Amino acid sequence: MGRKTNRKRFWGWLVAALLVFCLAVLAFFPTRYYIEYPGGADRVSKFIKVDGKRDKAAGEYRLMTVSVAGPASPIMLLWGKSQPFGDIVSEQDLMGDQTSSEYNTIQNYYIRSAGNAAIAAAFKAADKPIHIDYRGIYVMSMQANSDFRGKLKVGDTITAINGKHYQKAQRYIDAIKKHKVDTKVTVTYLRGKHAHSVTRKLVQIKGLKRAGLGIGLTDDTRVESKPHVKINAGEIGGPSAGLIFALQIYDQVSGTNLRAGRDIAGTGTIDDHGKIGAIGGIDKKVYAASKAGATIFFAPDIPATKTMKREDPSYINNYVEAKNAARKMKTKMKIVPVRKLQDAIQYLQAK
């Protein structure tokens, strides 16, 4: 009798241990997937100072964010699917071939770049002078075959090739592609505030019949303005705050108050000429804006080109996607299509 009781206890403990183990796996074991879900709708005025002052006029511009959680456990993935407009994305889709550190570096670059472009676009719209300083080319990624791999890294700014500085990323590309594969070139670059130089061979650029450094790159710019504009978005990253930054800055440097007491939200990349570009996760941003009480939401209205359709057959215009999300939510918030900063300015002036 004692042996049977001990055997039952053993199997009871074993089953209990297996259940605890399975629950621990479900709760804590990380998968290679992340959860994207609606984030906040922050007041833009708290991020921006013009001539050392914040905008205290009635109404608010709101910057929406998409929250990312992960690597997610199986239970977290179930939770993510239950969130309004929640999506599960793979690590590859979210970060590509970047490490977490590189991904965060790029997101920080994007928000800084969006701020610079927003300042330039807002000052131009307000007919105020602005100076753009082209520092060089920002290293966004590294090809596996790059001879500069291990020397250059994501986040560096290349300021000269063979001792010559250029004013645009395309000028650097044009200068480099004149050389043949395996030609040695000297690259001068900034890492933080310190300048360095390195000499290595050019490689074949993936998918192109020309030589290159083997990096993904973009312009690294700084803007100088009077009055001085300072943007500090804290831990927020990404390029999609450009439009809403520009509207906030425009109000302050032009001396107008387009908000007129309203809560206004919007999203979209922006260049220094005020051209607006498409972004991701707009359904989540519509949700966050509506919950925060915004009455107007500016959405990029960028028609799909043949190239865009070829690269992404499932492409949906941001404005259309935003309208669909608003309809699903049954929100009264007005979704307004925009292609340039001036569209948003004129809409607010007219209304």
Automatic annotation (TrEMBL):
Catalytic activity, EC: 3.4.21.53
Transmembrane segments: none
Catalytic activity: Hydrolysis of proteins in presence of ATP
SUPFAM superfamilies: PDZ domain-like (SSF50156), Ribosomal protein S5 domain 2-like (SSF54211)
NCBIfam families in the cross-refs: SepM_fam_S16
Name under which the protein is recorded: endopeptidase La
Origin superkingdom: Bacteria
UniProt KW keywords: Hydrolase, Protease, Serine protease
Organism: Lacticaseibacillus pabuli
Active-site residues annotated for this sequence: S240, K285
Family that this chain belongs to: Belongs to the peptidase S16 family.
Domain Lon proteolytic: from-to ranges: 232-351
A molecular function (GO) term: peptidase activity
GO biological process, one term: proteolysis
Keyword Hydrolase among record annotations: yes
